[in-house]
Every structure is written in structure tokens, then in C-alpha cells.
Amino acid sequence: MEGRTMSETTRGGFGRRLHRKLLGSLIVLGLVGVVAGVGTWSAFTATTANSGNTFAAGTVAIGDNDANGQLFSMSGMKPGSTSSGCIQVTYTGSLAANVKLYGTTTGSGLDPYITLTVTRGTISSGSFSSCTNFTADSTDYLGSGAGVVYSGTLQGYADDYTGGILDAPGGNTESWTTSETHAYRFDVTLQDTDSAQGKTANQVFTWESRNT
Questions:
Q1: What's the predicted TM-score (pTM) here?
Q2: For residues 86 and 180, what is the distance between their CA atoms, to the nearest angstrom?
Q3: Please, which residues have CB within 8 angstroms of residue 89's CB and are 6 or more apart in sequence?
Q4: How far apart are CA 66 and CA 89, in angstroms?
Q5: What angle is formed at CA 160 by the lines to CA 162 and CA 206, rounded to 5 degrees?
Q6: With contact defined as beta carbons under 8 Å apart, do 3 and 11 qualify?
Q7: CA nearest neighbour of 103 among 40, 30, 165
Q8: How far apart are the C-alpha atoms of 159 and 165, rounded to whole Å?
Q9: d(Cα 64, Cα 72) in Å, to the nearest integer?
Q10: Which CATH architecture has domain 62-211?
Q11: What is the pLDDT of residues 72-92, one digit of tens each?
């Protein structure tokens, strides 16, 4: 090249390449600055709130007036031996509930020979187990008489909630509400059969409520 040495030409090309690199770096840095600037811009905001929300679970509670006493304590029974006992059951839960009757039986096999009738009604006054002021419901729930909710043997009485007697049965199911009370009369009779001799039975009567 005229008027330039090879080293001058090389230096000129290197200078132009360096210039282009510096210019590209400045452009990149400028773009980064723009992006960073966008990220730090402020935004308008506004809120609204609904306060004071509260939550409380309802209750299911049921009890009776037995004061840990027994409806029956019968020994030396013979054919035709009979007895009655009454109990009042009260619902105190805040949620409406259905109630079922069932029980647990133990012993050495007397339960098939004990006839049991359970009648629902009211008691105007009196202490636990006394049936003096008991009045049966007017409804014939099962076709077995006014207020009768179970009629059979002690063995046939339901053993758990699943098979329990829905109070009241026969399509008359009702939901119990707070402070609702019902009385129940239990009548038992030992059948006239030699097969009952020497046998025993122990029974727990249970009312279970479950909210509807």
C-alpha cells in the first residue's frame, strides 16, 4: 500500500475493530440500563378489605337422667318374671340431630329368652327408673301399640348405630333440637322355657345422636 507500511495498516484495522467492540458494549450497557430502569418504576396501588370474619363449630350432645344407676337388676328370675324401668333422654347440642337406639349385650346366653318392649313417651315428674308418671306417645310407630319403638327379644335389639332403631321409626324420623327430651319405658319378661335356666345377660342401652 502506497504511503503506508504493513504495520500501519494492521494497526488501523485493529483500531477500527476495537472501536466497533467498544460501540457494541456501550449499546448493550445502554439496553441493560433501560431494562433496569423499567424494573424500578413505581406502580399505583389500592386495596379493600372485609374484616371481622368469625367461625365456630356447632355441637352434638345428648345425656340422660340415670345418674349412673341401672334400669334393671334382676336375679333369681323364673318364667314370667317381669319388670319395667323408665329413663329420660335430653338433647343439648346446638345442631339438629337424628337419634338412634342400640345396645351391647354380654353374658352366657339368656338374651334370646328375654322379651323386650321399648316405648317412647313423656314423664311429667318422678325420679330415674320410675314409670309412675309415664305417658306413651300417641303415635303407633310400628303397629305394636302407642309409642312402641321396639318389640322383640333382648337378643334382637340392635348392637350398633348402623343397625340401630331410628327415633322415631316407621317413617316418623324427627330431628332433635336443643333441650328436646323424650322418655322411654323398657319392659322385660322372661319367657317360659327350660332353655333359660342358669343363663345370664348383661345389657347396655345406648342413644347416639348425629347431626343432620
A1: 0.78
A2: 17
A3: 62, 63, 64, 99, 181, 182, 183, 184, 207
A4: 9
A5: 125
A6: no
A7: 165
A8: 10
A9: 16
A10: Sandwich (2.60)
A11: 999 999 999 999 999 999 999
Write out pLDDT tens, residues 6-35: 444 444 554 555 455 544 554 444 444 544
Question: What would the grid cell of residue 53 be?
Answer: 370474619
Task: Write out the three cell numbers for 205.
Answer: 342401652
Phi–psi pair at 30, nearest 5 degrees = -65, -40
* Torsion of the alpha carbons at 19, 21, 27 and 30, rounded to the nearest 10: -100
Grid cell of 113 as nine digits: 329368652
Q: Which three cell numbers stand for residue 96?
A: 339438629
Beta strands 82-91 and 62-64 are antiparallel
Sign of CA dihedral 106, 107, 112, 115: negative
Helix (H) / strand (E) element for 126: namely: none
**Which residue type occupies 44?**
F
